[in-house]
Amino acid sequence: MPENTPRTQRSTRKRGRRNPLATAALIAIGLVFTGGAYAAFSTSTASAEVDMASQQTIDEGKKLFQANCATCHGLAAQGTDNAPSLIGVGAASVDFQVGTGRMPMQMQGPQALEKPPQFTDDETKALAAFVASLAPGPAIPPADITSGGGDTSRGGELFRINCAMCHNVAGAGGALTEGKFAPPLTTVSGVHIYEAMITGPQNMPVFNDLNLTPEDKRDIITYLKYVQDTPSPGGLDLGALGPVSEGLFIWIFGIGAIVALTVWITAKSN
């Protein structure tokens, strides 16, 4: 048998050795996955650990409020010439306005526009806790009534009766007067839908428990979640804006195709 020369031994060691770049890549991938999993876990559990009744949370919310909101709403949330009083609006109103990015406002206009939130969920809860401590108001609804699980058919009926005249039957939104509009509900969470119903933000009326019971609101949320998760059974929904967009589509493409075919046949006959 041939003896292992030093060169052969070195070649064998090189073939069995892992490339240093591969080792570094594996470590980097492991760190990314570990960090991502930890961030997701900590984000999902952090909001559940916020005790909105604790004085510490209220004090944190007060500091955030005075640093970011008092310019318009006043140091004690009493309101100014630039913004209304927040005394008595409750935690639900703050959670909706701040959680959807409508507050703080980016610019003055007919209504506050939705945008990426400027505060974390914990900070939003702290702000809501501070405002709720000033006077009684609507509280943030519990998860068991905002996660759906109600009667979809009944929720659709309630939505068509109470909401569709502004938001469209499919929740696609619609235009109002003076540059205002009812926003689309295609991506809104169940919590924010419920909060909007009990606080009546901007042009929306308040639907208290005498107008719509908590079970009614849960059914409406269930219907909207069904609309959000279910694709259009008829194909392209054209924005779900109803007969206007559908008629325009038929007029442009349908009548246009007929006219083009007529012109083509006439040209061939000549």
Automatic annotation (TrEMBL):
One Pfam family linked to the record: Cytochrome_CBB3
Protein name: Cytochrome bc1 complex cytochrome c subunit
EC number(s) recorded for this UniProt protein: 7.1.1.8
Record's subunit section: The cytochrome bc1 complex is composed of a cytochrome b (QcrB), the Rieske iron-sulfur protein (QcrA) and a diheme cytochrome c (QcrC) subunit.
Residues given in the record as heme c 1 binding sites: C69, C72, H73
GO CC annotations, alphabetized: plasma membrane
Residues that coordinate or bind heme c 2: C163, C166, H167
Gene3D superfamilies in UniProt: Cytochrome c-like domain
Annotated TM spans: 21-41, 248-267
PANTHER family with a match to the protein in the record: CBB3-TYPE CYTOCHROME C OXIDASE SUBUNIT FIXP, CYTOCHROME BC1 COMPLEX CYTOCHROME C SUBUNIT
Keywords of this entry: Cell membrane, Electron transport, Heme, Iron, Membrane, Metal-binding, Repeat, Respiratory chain, Translocase, Transmembrane, Transmembrane helix, Transport
MF annotations from Gene Ontology: heme binding; iron ion binding; quinol-cytochrome-c reductase activity
Post-translational modification: Binds 2 heme c groups covalently per subunit.
Domain (Cytochrome c) ranges: 56-135, 150-228
Signal peptide: none
Subcellular location: Cell membrane
Catalytic activity: a quinol + 2 Fe(III)-[cytochrome c](out) = a quinone + 2 Fe(II)-[cytochrome c](out) + 2 H(+)(out)
Organism superkingdom: Bacteria
Record's bilayer topology term: Multi-pass membrane protein
InterPro entries listed in its UniProt record: bc1_cytC-su, Cyt_c-like_dom, Cyt_c-like_dom_sf, Cytochrome_c_Oxidase_Subunit
